[in-house]
Amino acid sequence: MPRAALTEEHLGIWMNFIEKDNTYCKYYDEFVVLLETGMRVSEFCGLTRKDLDFKNRRIRVDHQLIRRERGGKYYVEETKTSSGRRFLPMNETVYDSLKKMLERRPTVKAEPMVDGYSGFIMLDKNGNPKVALHIENEMRWAMKKYKKLHPDSPLPHITPHVFRHTFCTNYANDGMDIKNLQYLIGHSDAGVTLNVYTHASYAHAAEQMAEISKFRHSPEVKKDRGFAVG
Prior knowledge:
This protein is mostly helical.
């Protein structure tokens, strides 16, 4: 399936549905954090309380939580490259959503420990840390319900990875420097960020071209460049 970012319209429809649905609203804040940080879902699942710096409003990302398909063993994997180790800013939305997630976090008798890590911010119904499959299933089940309730308003396939694409594409389209975007997304090669995780469109290209053209042909700029103005 081709990689694609969600449009603003589709994203608005989806998040509005999640927020208002009686069953899936409990996952709304998880989706917000994924969408607003661009984290890999395994990095998100690996977050512990110690990784959240609410005072300075930043998130430390330096590992990911994995569960093997065979045997169901949990393990923590450090980022493969130094580029994966990074800090992500908490905007107001992320800050609020993380606070709500911690407030709703179930109380457990004994904190699960995985390879020396504990205090995972997301736990499943059995008190174990959530892994990527949990988040993927939340989206899959919610999508199934959405399709049933809104058969005439289809949405594209939505996964945590689609959220990551959407984050990167939106910031690229809004003019973020590719090196800064590379840092936030955790890539060692800016080419990957540029060629794989962003999606140019005619509409956006035409809009930006019109804005630049308007600037270049403004009387002030033409005068600065020595062109006759009149």
